[in-house]
Amino acid sequence: MGQSLHRSRSILVKWLAVAGLSLSITTVAAGADSEDVARSAQHFQTRRPSLTREDCSGLVSDILNRAGFDVYGTVTTIWEWAKTHGWLHRQKTPQIGDIVFFDKTYDSNHNGRSDDKLTHIGVVTSVEADGTVVLVHRSSSQGIAKLRMNLFKPDVYREEDRVLNDYLVRKSYAGENGERLSGEVWAGFATVRKSFRPWVAPVLANTSSPPATRAAVSVRATPPAALAARLPPPDVVEGLPDRRAVRRAKMAERRERRANPLAIAAAPPRPLS
Questions:
Q1: Which of 10, 23, 112, 125 sees the fewest Cβ atoms within 10 Å?
Q2: What is residue 102's DSSP assignment?
Q3: Are 165 and 157 in contact (CB under 8 A)?
Q4: Does the global pTM surpass 0.85?
């Protein structure tokens, strides 16, 4: 059942992506947190399965979905979702499982300038001793891949034999001296928290309450047996014959009288009720 629902939702998201639209569904499974997101990210990094949508936000959406967070949409959609919950932060050392946002990685608004906001996204998988963050993301050239970023030295590509910040922006977009390293275009983190679906008590019929209160009970929330118990029998109302049955009997008697008046005249009189 769960796989069928996920497959149907995936088809809907793909259709919306083709149409240039996005879908945001924001329920949270009980107990889901950043550790679940980190484990899910490791799964996608090692197994590299096909994605619901083959872009950076499609990868992160699938990672979050596997961890128990049903969030589908663009980078901006996920940013606004995290902002609504108060999960955004700009600490230089993130937690494993944090969502990473970037600005100005490509010309998303097609204006020819390096001014685009929230254009790329990934998930933190590890943090090294010197503060270098390793994350998983999806690039247009490499697919699902690792990316390195050091916010303590955001403008340094390599130090000795170690890469601190990978190149994330093409020179054709950033320009000859523009910001191209991952640490230079970093926009922020989001640490997802544990959350629970709200529980709503069912509305049940209360036959001991006054009539005015009983009238306010939703019929859709009342068990069928309780509704049937409230209804009178079909042919009797408060001990009296059903009016429709009496009317049908009188009409039948009139038809018989018109068809055979002699038989009606010869018949003995009926006792008065």
A1: 112
A2: E
A3: yes
A4: no
